[in-house]
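Our working data are protein records whose layout never changes between entries. An example says more than a description, so a record of this kind follows.
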Amino acid sequence: MNLDIHGGSCGHSCCLRVENLSVKIGTDQILNNINLHVHCGEMVALIGPNGAGKSTFLKAILGQLEYQGVIAFSQPGRRSSKPRIGYVPQSPAFDPSDPVSVADLFACCMSKRPAFLGLGKSMKQLVPECLERVHGEDLANKRIGALSGGELQRVLLALALEPMPNILILDEPLSGVDVEGMEALMDMLDEIRKNYDLSILMTTHDFSMLRRYADQVVLIDHAVLIQGEPDRVLSSEEFSRTFHTKGGRA
C-alpha cells in the first residue's frame, strides 16, 4: 500500500491521483490497473454494473483495503500528513422507532459527552452550523428514523463535512431518494464543491443527473472501460455494451 501525498503529475494544482491501482481479495482480482486524477472542485462519478468493483475502489482510497499501486494527494502550499476525507456510506439503516434525534446523532459522533446528558454548549452551537451547510437547519430535533431518504442524506453529509474535508466520498448517495430529492441533493453537492473547493467522488446507478453535474464519468467493470466528460462516456460503445442502452437514459 502506498499513499503518497506529495509529488505526482498534477502540476501545481490540488489533486487526488490514482495510478495503476489493483485490488485482489483471495484469488479474485477485483480491480486491475485503475488510473484516475481528480482535481479539487471536480465532481467525478463512478458507474458500472453491480459487482464491478466501485465500492472496492472507494474502500481502497479510504484505506480500508490493501491494494497495489499509488494513491497520492497533493495540495500546493500546504504540508499535511494526509488529506482529510469525508465519507457517506451506502444506505445506512435506522430503526424507525428509535427515539434518537439528529442532534443526538451529532453528539454521539462528535462529542465525548454522553448523548443522554444532552448537548453541551459547544455542540449546541456546532450542530446548527453543520446542518446549515446542507440547508438542514430544521432537522436538528427530528428523529433519525423519521427522516426521508433525502433528509437522511443531508444529515450524513453534514457529518461528513465536519471538519471540512479535501475529498468527499459518497457511495450511492441517490439511492432511496425520490426524483425531486435527487435534484435538490445534487444541487447542494454542486454548491458545496464550488464553495469549499473540495473534490467529490461518488458512485451512482442513476445516470440522469450526470450530464448536468459531473465533470468526469468513469465506467468501471473491474478495470476502467472508458472515462471522460459525461457526453463522451454515456454515448460510448463501452457504455452501450455494459448497460444495453444508449445515451445514459435507461
In short: Residues 174 and 182 are 6 Å apart (CA to CA). Strands lie at 3-4, 15-25, 28-39, 43-47, 68-74, 85-88, 167-171, 199-203, 216-220, 224-228.
